[in-house]
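Schema walkthrough. Field components (list of strings):
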Amino acid sequence: MKLFKNGVIIMDRRQQKTRAAIFQAFTALLGEESYSRITVQEIIDRANVGRTTFYAHFETKDELLKALCENLFCHIIASAEDCSHTHGLYCDGSAPESIFCHLLQHLKENDSNVLGLLSCESNEIFLRFFKDSLCELIRSQFDMQKHPFGRKVPADFLVNHISGSFVEMVLWWIRGRMKQTPEELDCYFRSVIEPVL
Amino acid sequence: MKLFKNGVIIMDRRQQKTRAAIFQAFTALLGEESYSRITVQEIIDRANVGRTTFYAHFETKDELLKALCENLFCHIIASAEDCSHTHGLYCDGSAPESIFCHLLQHLKENDSNVLGLLSCESNEIFLRFFKDSLCELIRSQFDMQKHPFGRKVPADFLVNHISGSFVEMVLWWIRGRMKQTPEELDCYFRSVIEPVL
DNA sequence: ATTAAAGAGAACAAAATGTTCGTTACAATA
DNA sequence: TATTGTAACGAACATTTTGTTCTCTTTAAT
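Field assembly_structure (string):
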């Protein structure tokens, strides 16, 4: 099914196409009904691929979901990592280009319809995935810093607090139809996070 | 199916039993496999009720889930509401009996196995439900208070931030095998929340 | 003791799952 | 360009799950 070359996975152009078609169909369906109600039949009908083809790519619906998550967040997190290398987490209070602002802007652009998935009926799954990625990102940046709360509160707790708050904020933003700009949101976030950094 | 008396629902003792049996079986199954993999057949086998009986109580598996959530959190939130009436949200910084500490202690006691559900594979569903209940509770307490952030950050944002942070903390606590006492956790939470109140 | 309702259990159609074929179409090589 | 491997097709299939419809029995409330 998959060919390996120099350690990286090379995909047949056909595979890429069907994979993309399945992802797209699945994403669209998630906007229409809850995850548990979506059937493989619906997916392959919309994606216009054969039944066998689907099962050749994904063992189950759950696997498809997982693969979609990985696809989605690896991009957004990678670009945030890039950003954090040059600017750091929140070292200087006045940095206009924080990771968080960067992430929010990235979300606003909404490539590959992350927002659609984060606001669909079954968004909890994506939220958890998003948060897990975020935790890793923040942790890698965090232990570099010395924080005054060092003894009072464990660093692990703080990493979770920051990631969790951010994800919950994004959810709040989306549910409120995204009336605020990324910059406004970033300002809110700094207000509640910087006092504890 | 259901009899009404003075506006409240009165249940036949038989109904109560089967309902309880179904809830219990469902809860146990959620600890063993993911929600999407659980079948109605498994539930009725474990609960030892007939197929017809199940569908007389719940239209779908999703409805059962929803009913379970409502059952779970109405108790825990009601007792927290009680507590908040006497002590307020976080008015005085040294109150040993905050809503949050109360909630954590309540969770620690773990009646009706809330912790099991919050740590099972499909816990996202319960988390959202928990957070929604919490948001309402905090909102009802919050707008009574005057907070210094009044202009800088919307109250709505703060309510979401507090509820969200709390839920994320509980999740972190459970995932870390609950090594901290409710009092320790409450202390952590105050450290990150009181600066923004 | 009477009555109304709930559960058991079997049987059923319809839908969804997951697998196995042989055949066709295409993509990456030489 | 010809060759070769393999992805996709599609039809057919057994199996599982769903949701409904019966009849009959048991139980709770009064």
